[in-house]
Design brief:
345 residues, alpha/beta, FAD/NAD(P)-binding domain, 2 domains, six-stranded mixed β-sheet, five-stranded parallel β-sheet, 7 helices, 22% helix
Length: 345
Amino acid sequence: MEPHLNQEVIATALAHDGTPPRNTEGAIETDAVIVGAGPVGLFQVFELGLLEIKAHVIDSLAYPGGQCVELYPDKPIYDIPAVPVCTGQELTDSLLKQIEPFGAVFHFGQEVTVVEKQPDGRFTCRPQGHELPDQDHLHRRRWGAFQPRLLKVEGLDKFQDSQVFYRVKNPADFAGKNLVIVGGGDSALDWVLNFVAEGPNKAESVILIHRRDGFKAAPASVAKMRELCDAYEMQFIVGQVTGLEEKDGRMTGVKVTGGDAVTRVVPLDMLLVFFGLSPSSARSPNGAWTSSASNSRWTPKVLHQRARHLRGGRHQRLPRQEKADPQRISRMRPGRLRRRPVRVP
């Protein structure tokens, strides 16, 4: 479903998106750049803020939250430490409130395409024409910007954003239309149920296509979909889209090949595809995503000392790990560990 973030939280994020300081060349100067406004990126703002490091956050999506908000804003999440259950939207709202005191600057709807190392040891990243010289580090989420997985059918791309859609921005655009929805995850099932339900966004007809009879969606959603099929409120077809039909410059139907190897034509007005998001792992020309300059004010040593000072007290020195000798092992007895390794003949 389309995410609806708390308006107060949105105002908090946009309040930070002011006019940042620029150098004489018009580039934005900052201590750190975080690529990705998902939960990891937002919490990185908090960690850097504890070290008094100001950060700019860049994300290709139009809102914070990353994959949690894009894929399952209203679905329960159970694997957040110390939080028994929350939704992707609630997690994002809480993180934005947590980082509010640190004044991070957000750049939404922009994708970093170029990262260059400067002679002075700093980095410059360019998100869609803007320059952000990074004073010290470029922090990025592991897999980069998320893009929707495309349905690879010859000739389908020319209908994208006119009859083929990978995201629903305005449900009202699909009201009264003959819809074909492809996918087997939560997003596909949620939109199926949304367009079948009575209301202003109700479609004329809804046909769900999935390559198999099993789904990776909430069991309740799958059960509801099957009930609607039994009541003839919608249709479900097992198969894969292998082609399309068009007339007078418009797509009139898709060819669906089932498990019986028979290809059928399914008429439609609009095609919605929900295959999830695919991470874009594009790298910079020099191949470096995360680095620190030796002459930077925030060297690893300085960061370590500052973190130790801010968190207070000493920390334990962990024992250095040594390479294992294949000729030496430690034999264990129940409740006891021999200190001296025994040589194996």
